Amino acid sequence: MVAVKPRILCVDDEPVDLKIFNDILLPQGYEVLYAQNGSQALEMIIKSKIDLVLLDTIMPEMDGYEVCRLIKGNKNQVNIPMVMITGLQVKKEKIKGIEAGADDYISKPFDQDEILARIKMLLKTKESNDRLSQAYNNFAMLATFGEEAVRTFDPLTFELQPNIDRLISKVIRQNNEMIFQPQGFIVGILEEKGWELYFYEYSSKGLQRCQFELDIQKLLSLPARGSSRVVIAERSELADKGLKSFTVQLETHPLLNVAIENIFCFFSNDLCVFALNYNRGFTAYETSIFNSLVMQIMFFKSLADQGKRAEGTFVHSIRSLLRASEIHDIDTGNHNLRVGECCALLARHLNKSENLVRTISQQAQMHDVGNIYIAGEILRKRSSPTFEEWNIIRKHTLFGAEILSDNPFLSIARTIALSHHENWNGSGYPHMLKGEQIPMVARIASLADRYDSLRNSRPYKPAWDHKTAYEKLIGGDNRIQPEFFDPQVLEAFKELATQFEAIYEKHKG
């Protein structure tokens, strides 16, 4: 934990007076800065975080009253206590200082005890005001953050971890000047496979998150389901409050580099949040902010749980629709599954978001759902389809788009169903789209579908082995050309070819 000394700026054009301030303040543990005129003082306040200013009233060029007015007129500096120093006892001069924004007045010759008492009182008031201002800013940020989450919430795309990361980044200490913020956080979430624990700290590279393992079920006395508790402890209180074993494990963990000076804890049966090392200890402000942070994380977790339930229902609906489309072909189900996994493989390799990877894995399986409208005798025909029959089969792209309609949750599926037979060189169907006119998800699905179709037997064609299918996609033949595919996607396929083969072997049925 970083010890923060209050920083006092002494402004006086007399070196003798500055030495007196130095002799009084340094032994008390204050950090002392000096300025010999108003311009220097204003420059130093901009560059350094100042906690209090001792300001002489009579100086050349710019007097203390003008300096005080300029400082107090800046919204970022208005809370800095200004103590006017004067050798005059004239009432109107004191009034003039108060009107300029001065918080206190000290007359020469100096009385050391009086100066220290006034400084101590004003610094205490400033700290209280700073805590209140910080608390207000944090509450406003949390409220805005929550409102944005609700406004943009989509149960099928909401991701818990990125939202927690963003939330923590708003309230963690990012530099030594943020004296009211905690140095680090630990967030623990109970998942199906057990507790997942994350340690957060801030460095020159930004917010850092480290996942680690610890048996908190054994180390902490977690409350029963439906209840929770909050524990606040300084280092000397860890044993009395049942946190000693837990903090020892944290401090000796090979992945962490943390020493616990104080800790703020929230426990429930499925969520734990720990804020570590507040420089200035705890007040009602820190308690309120921490509680609000926990409530926000609980809210996000609730949204994520809703998303999981919605996703489960959604996946069940997809599978029902797929079963209907497989009525004419007993192998189509495995084909659909393989295409979905290959699409996910390509999307991840192309650095698409994990949300898109997950979505395309599910929704690409519906690429041929339009086959529901194609007569079974055409799809099961043992000879090659006639020209007229090919025209009917090609309509499955339009039928698929019509079945999936404009449901926003099925937008990826609809795009793939409609456009997965479009070719990069413009020779595809149904709309002869070319190049980047073809949506990226359809370009990915096009290659995954073509590979699996080559590997898969049909009544009118045999199944090819992996080597032959690979050569046909890369080199082309009388039915398929490499120019059909987005070059970026085709290059990804070359690098992933062995994994395509593994997916086929895993699900070849």
Structure description:
With 509 residues, this protein is an alpha/beta fold. Helix content is 49%, strand content 14%. It has helices at 15-25, 38-47, 64-72, 91-100, 112-151, 160-171, 216-219, 244-251, 284-325, 332-349, 354-363, 376-379, 387-394, 396-404, 411-419, 440-455, 466-475, 487-506; strands spanning 7-11, 31-35, 52-56, 82-86, 104-107, 182-191, 194-203, 206-212, 228-234, 262-268, 271-278. A six-stranded antiparallel beta sheet has the order 8-7-6-11-10-9. Strands 2-1-3-4-5 form a five-stranded parallel beta sheet, sandwiched between helices. Helix 1 links the parallel strand 1 and strand 2 (31-35). Helix 10 (332-349) packs across helix 16 (440-455) and helix 10 crosses helix 18 (487-506). The model has no long low-confidence stretch (mean pLDDT 85).
Summarize this entry quickly.
The chain has 509 residues and is α/β, with parallel strands linked by helices. The protein has helices at residues 15-25, 38-47, 64-72, 91-100, 112-151, 160-171, 216-219, 244-251, 284-325, 332-349, 354-363, 376-379, 387-394, 396-404, 411-419, 440-455, 466-475, 487-506; strands spanning 7-11, 31-35, 52-56, 82-86, 104-107, 182-191, 194-203, 206-212, 228-234, 262-268, 271-278.
Note the topology.
Layout: E1 7-11, H1 15-25, E2 31-35, H2 38-47, E3 52-56, H3 64-72, E4 82-86, H4 91-100, E5 104-107, H5 112-151, H6 160-171, E6 182-191, E7 194-203, E8 206-212, H7 216-219, E9 228-234, H8 244-251, E10 262-268, E11 271-278, H9 284-325, H10 332-349, H11 354-363, H12 376-379, H13 387-394, H14 396-404, H15 411-419, H16 440-455, H17 466-475, H18 487-506
Parallel strand pairs: 1-2, 1-3, 3-4, 4-5
Antiparallel strand pairs: 6-7, 6-11, 7-8, 9-10, 10-11
Helix pairs in contact: 2-3, 5-9, 6-9, 10-11, 10-16, 10-18, 11-15, 14-15, 15-16, 16-17, 16-18, 17-18
